[in-house]
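Record 1 of the preview.
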Amino acid sequence: MLLLYATHDGQARRIATRIAARLADCGFEATPRDLADGAPTGAEIGAAPLVVLVAAVRYGRHLPQAERFLATYRRASPQSPLAFISVNLTARKPGKNNATHNAYLRKSIRRHGLVPVLAQAVAGRLAYPHYRWWDRQIIRLIMTLTGGPADPRTCTEFTDWAEVDAIATRIVALLDGIH
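->
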């Protein structure tokens, strides 16, 4: 299988690594692959029994390398089943962890014409001290508008790791169904 991630601050990588560890516990080997290091070819995508994408959102869209991958995935023939995990701070709110209620995930699925076998949003991490000045100001504005923490000294882990483990369990079930 392909386990891919697109990260800006490292949280999507941590989530992909956690999923890989849970898969390994169940006998499935998957090495997380950073899309910034290069995307798989259409042939690699078509040969994989399952493609898992863990993609971070930045300023309202999934990172460019994730967007490019999804365009390649869409053109791949045949397409392998896709599990799409969006990492964004909107998912910190109750009920915003699925494609129906998470705008970033829903719009990306629609924009690329996807029919994922699993589509889930996971809350990321907010770490103001690690951001550049401009990013910190923009994110503070977004957090103020959405009722999130706006103190520039804030570091908050919003990721629900039990939810990530549950996603890994669902991926295992998908893989069991394929084999």
